[in-house]
């Protein structure tokens, strides 16, 4: 599927098959949504949360962006799309869990690690550069541990990016309050495209283990 016409053909198959099979479910969803989980995932076309987690329509509130990043809490003027989605999911939908899912071969994390767009003050790449600048601290830590940017370094960057997002999530007062009150749980994980395995972060030990 590469073009819009292919997508329309896909819609027609969906309308004939899946939509009919889940007719009762779609009737329920027409009245509103009540997902228990929010997923922050990468925009990468290879990493579709609904497929990876085998979720039905209405079960997950999903936000996707470059490198699956959650920004820190900020009140400066601007268009804070991810923050708005977080606010809606937590304060309005009252989700009970937030999952940050990084992944293997992440272009956003690679750009942050290599500094590919560091000089893009104007023109192509500037939005990417500003966004992945959230990972500057992670980049410093990775380059301090790895003298060469080998596959292990890129993987380490992807794992650290998940941890950065979790730390940023806790700067939002209404997330921190709910987590302290045990009304909201935060999780980090990493999906390996190469072998299809999901690794879940044990925050207490700071390690990712196979699910």
UniProtKB/TrEMBL annotation:
Q: Which cofactor does it need?
A: Zn(2+)
UniProt keyword Zinc, yes or no? yes
* Catalytic reaction equation(s): hydrogencarbonate + H(+) = CO2 + H2O
Q: What is its EC number?
A: 4.2.1.1
Keywords per UniProt? Lyase, Metal-binding, Zinc
Q: Which SUPFAM superfamilies does this UniProt record tie to the protein?
A: beta-carbonic anhydrase, cab
Q: Which domain of life is it from?
A: Bacteria
- A UniProt-annotated Pfam family: Pro_CA
Q: Which class of enzymes does this protein belong to?
A: lyase
Family, as annotated: Belongs to the beta-class carbonic anhydrase family.
Protein task: Reversible hydration of carbon dioxide.
| Protein name as annotated | Carbonic anhydrase
């Amino acid at each position: 599927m590469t073009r819009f016409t292919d997508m329309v053909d896909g819609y027609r198959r969906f309308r004939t098959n899946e939509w009919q099979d889940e007719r009762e479910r779609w009737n329920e969803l027409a009245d509103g949504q009540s997902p228990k989980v929010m997923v922050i995932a990468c925009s990468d076309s290879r990493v579709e949360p609904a497929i990876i987690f085998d979720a039905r329509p209405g079960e997950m509130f999903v936000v996707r962006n470059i490198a699956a990043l959650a920004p820190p809490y900020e009140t400066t003027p601007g268009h804070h799309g991810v923050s708005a989605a977080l606010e809606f999911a937590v304060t309005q939908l009252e989700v009970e869990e937030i999952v940050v899912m990084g992944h293997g071969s992440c272009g956003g994390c690679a750009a942050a690690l290599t500094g590919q767009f560091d000089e893009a003050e104007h023109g192509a790449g500037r939005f990417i550069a500003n966004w992945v600048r959230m990972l500057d601290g992670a980049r410093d830590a990775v380059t301090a541990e790895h003298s060469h940017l080998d596959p292990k370094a890129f993987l380490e960057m992807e794992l650290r990016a998940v941890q950065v997002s979790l730390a940023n999530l806790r700067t939002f007062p209404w997330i921190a309050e709910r987590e302290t009150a045990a009304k909201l749980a935060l999780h980090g994980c990493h999906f390996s495209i190469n072998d299809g395995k999901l690794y879940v972060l044990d925050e207490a030990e700071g390690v990712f283990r196979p699910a």
